[in-house]
Amino acid sequence: MREFETQECEPLPRRQSVELAALRRHDDTAAAELRNSLPLMLAGILDEVPGAELGLTMLADPDGMVETAVSASPGDDSTALITEIATALEPIAEIAVRSNQSVRWLTRWPVVPEIRHGSLGFAAREAAQAKATRWCNGGDAMSTQLIDDLATLPGQGIEVVLRAVSTAPEPRWEAQMYVVTGGDEPSLRLRAALRRRFAGLQVASSPSDAAVWLEVGSTDLPALFAIPVAGSEAPLGAYTAAPAPIVVTPSRIGDPEAGLRIGEAVTNSGRSTPVLLSEQERLRHIHVLGRTGTGKSSALAGLVNELAAGTDGALVADPHGQLCDRILAELPDEARDRVWVIRCGDVDNPVPMNPLAETDPVRRDIAIADICATFQYLFDRNATGIVGPRFQERVAMTLRALASAHGSRASLLDVPIAANNDAFMDEAVKSSGNQRLQNWWRIDKLERRSNERGEVLAWVNSKFEPFASTAAMRGILGSGADAIDFAEAMDNGRIILLDLSKAELGEAASRLLGFMYLSRVWHAALRRRRPDRPFTVVIDEAHTLIAGALTSMLAEGRKFGLSVVLAHQYLEQLDAGLRPAVDGNVATTIAFRCAVSDAGEVYKRFGGRIDTSVLVTLPELTAVTLRTAQSEPSQPHTLIIDHNRRVTPRTGQDLDAHVADLMSSTWADLVDPHRDLTAGAVAGASNVTTMADDSTLPKPGVPSTPPPVPGRPKKPTFLDDWLRQRTGETEVAGDRSTDTNAAEGSQ
């Protein structure tokens, strides 16, 4: 190792600098264009500040990570210069502006022209130190960047200093280039790399050799002032940053203050602007997609908070309960009177639901048909015969018998019990006045064979086990009571937080109950009196619920003022029936950081205008959205979820008191009026027996009428005479037998 005198190590000049802390990825075509255009843009800015110089420093640390900075030396307006540089570099990197760069002692080795006659790469002039040497880039076309070479050379780097010369007749600049080290000689690999990249240049033999100004034009400047730009793959030695925000074009149609705020975006000028969804966009539905922990729950919480602050209603279906808890903590005070909190796993406070709670016979028949369709969907979606016409007929007729006996209190869970109770069915069918039901029951009794009947009943009853498998489900579905008129709730702007916690209910019951609630909401939407008042159904972890009515909501909900917001992690989670409905009907897509397998699909949905590398590297609380229901053409843009900055949640005793107040009001409205009924259902009681005391139906084993009071003897019938004669003959025969035995004994 050669020895160098102390004076050969000198500090880098003090300059204001912009550090490229981490590089943002671009598609390869865009990256190639930026590598060419960005140095020219910075040089053009330099031309406007007389006396200023730009510096590019790239130095590898011991781990091979390359520290890159663009600096500005004092000129007429260095502060404005560094501000403009930072703005220019922000699209390609996360930046940090250093106003007072710390002094770093490094050895600077000039890079100078090779002293060879007619060498390729530069044209020598007389008095080289007085005038710059014209340099033309004749190096090899490189598939890698200079930063890739430096990443393999810890403790070594390069520095380029640039100054303006003239702008006419064509722009030209002068540059000095140095190799910087911590005191050691530049390695042979670095020397070879520079020869390969910069034809006609070499590292000086000593740090004390005079530096040479090289004159370059716009064609050769990008190769010399080589600012690193990441393509689809980040270069070696560079940290990866989040993609630069994709700017939004402000709408020129409509009231900018009207709409539901879902976050903020960045305009061309760098100004933040709120993103508002119009009512029309909401009614065309919203799809929120992204990996766990990327910001989906914050987006949903912000959306519901905005709805609560207004007058529109919503149902939030949450299979874990955490989103409901967060919404409660952040709920605006003005929405307290509109909120119901339904904890489906709370066995002590069940909110009863009854899909048969219809007084109108026509609507009751529709409800029965929907229940049969539910069984078909749940147990035999592909119509393989597991649930067929015979099953549906038996369930439908038993439900009609229950409705005849119990009216709007008929319970779905009573089907297995009623089907096994002939006494109940006889009376219920008889009192129904429904000739079709009576004819079915008569034929069913005539065609019975003991072994087949048991198999049929066991086959039907087994399908009801998921509905009654837990005390919570029995409390909700078993009493026959119905606590919520969803049509009225939707028209009144109710906010219903539905906690379908799997931890309390179990996964199967959570999915089934969510399915039934969505069905109730959909059928209520069909008979709304105020479809002009939007009602939003928000479904977190949409893949955990059975789709059911969701497909109808997506296809037709807009006509009835129904908006759907679906959130989940990746596209393959959606079942085969729901995925086409989402692709065909959702107008607003909010894509957070995607799984690699989804990036290609989202790329297609965005019309090929967002590179997949952007979609898989988005930071938390940042998404790309495309809103196709706008009244003017739209482009994808970055959506920043700012809800966490704008809302302060309640905590501690304030939160406890707030939640207790809301739960108390919910129980008063939905639970307390039905406690006597739900308590029995939780314990496993059935309306088939418990309602017999209040109806004309007999209890099993008890006669339907009291025993007759003895009266005057009636005129003997033929049967009476025959029985009396038969009795007389028996008595005579007995007497004869007695006489014969006595005679034999006397002998």
TrEMBL record:
Residues 282-592 form the AAA+ ATPase domain. This is AAA+ ATPase domain-containing protein. PANTHER family: AAA+ ATPASE DOMAIN-CONTAINING PROTEIN, UNCHARACTERIZED PROTEIN YJGR-RELATED. Residues 700-711 have a biased composition (Pro residues). InterPro entries: AAA+_ATPase (IPR003593), HerA_central (IPR002789), P-loop_NTPase (IPR027417), T4SS_component (IPR051162). Residues 717-738 have a biased composition (Basic and acidic residues). Residues 691-747 are annotated as: Disordered.
